[in-house]
């Protein structure tokens, strides 16, 4: 969604474009050095939330609190697959572990990060990680197993965790799968 991240002294310029609309946020504060990639979300109050990947492979979660940035170091490293906020504005992150063998769901409850290993491995970034009512999350994507990829959807709820995946159709053999 966000396409530009510029550091200029003590300001950050984040811009995104969606069809004809262009949104820009100017954040003031000491920028974080050695950022390689980032992803962003905006909560219902208009506050910016960022996940920053650093050159040393560490991950930071930063959120604007109206007058200052609050920054947490995430307890786990990995490749950021998806980031969104639930209906209460709490962050949910999907990570691929550094070895690429496991997909991890991290979410913040209070001041503690919770971690769940998903019962499947995502083949690529999910097609959709969408907040639902009552802090539930909808996930759709391709799972990867020894037979190939399968298109699926599942729902996360705070009370029950991830529900069993529902597969939308059959397997897609790996050798015939093309991603553009």
What's the helix and strand layout?
Layout: E1 2-8, E2 11-18, E3 21-28, E4 35-42, E5 48-54, E6 59-64, E7 69-73, E8 79-85, E9 91-96, E10 103-109, E11 112-117, E12 121-122, E13 128-131, E14 137-145, E15 148-157, E16 161-162, E17 166-172
Antiparallel strand pairs: 1-2, 2-3, 4-5, 5-6, 6-7, 8-9, 9-10, 10-11, 12-14, 13-14, 14-15, 15-16, 15-17
Outline the structure in words:
A hairpin with a 2-residue loop joins strand 10 and strand 11 (112-117). The protein is globular and about 50 Å long. The protein is 0% helix and 61% strand. It has strands at 2-8, 11-18, 21-28, 35-42, 48-54, 59-64, 69-73, 79-85, 91-96, 103-109, 112-117, 121-122, 128-131, 137-145, 148-157, 161-162, 166-172. With 180 residues, the chain is mainly beta.
Helix content: under 10%
H/E series:
EEEEEEEEEEEEEEEEE
Q: If you average the pLDDT, what whole number results?
A: 79
Number of helices: 0
> Structural class of the helix and strand makeup?
mainly beta
What are the segments in which pLDDT stays under 50 over at least 5 consecutive residues? none
Based on Cα principal axes, name the global outline: globular
Strand content: over 45%
Number of strands: 17
**End-to-end gap:** 18 Å
Short overview:
The chain has strands at 2-8, 11-18, 21-28, 35-42, 48-54, 59-64, 69-73, 79-85, 91-96, 103-109, 112-117, 121-122, 128-131, 137-145, 148-157, 161-162, 166-172.
């Amino acid at each position: 969604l966000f396409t530009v991240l510029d550091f200029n002294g003590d300001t950050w310029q984040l811009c995104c474009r969606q069809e004809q609309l262009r949104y820009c946020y100017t954040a003031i504060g000491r920028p974080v050095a050695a950022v390689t990639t980032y992803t962003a979300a905006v909560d219902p109050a208009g506050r910016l939330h960022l996940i920053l990947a650093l050159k040393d492979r560490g991950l930071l979660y930063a959120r604007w609190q109206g007058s200052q940035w609050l920054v947490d170091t995430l307890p786990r490293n990995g490749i950021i697959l998806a980031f969104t906020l639930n209906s209460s504005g709490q962050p949910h992150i999907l990570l691929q572990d550094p070895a690429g063998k496991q997909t991890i769901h991290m979410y913040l409850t209070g001041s503690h990060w919770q971690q769940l290993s998903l019962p499947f491995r995502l083949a690529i970034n999910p097609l959709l990680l969408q907040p639902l009512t009552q802090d539930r999350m909808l996930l759709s994507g391709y799972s990867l197993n020894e037979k190939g990829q399968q298109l699926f959807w599942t729902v996360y709820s705070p009370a029950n965790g991830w529900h069993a995946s529902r597969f939308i159709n059959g397997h897609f053999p790996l050798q015939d799968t093309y991603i553009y």
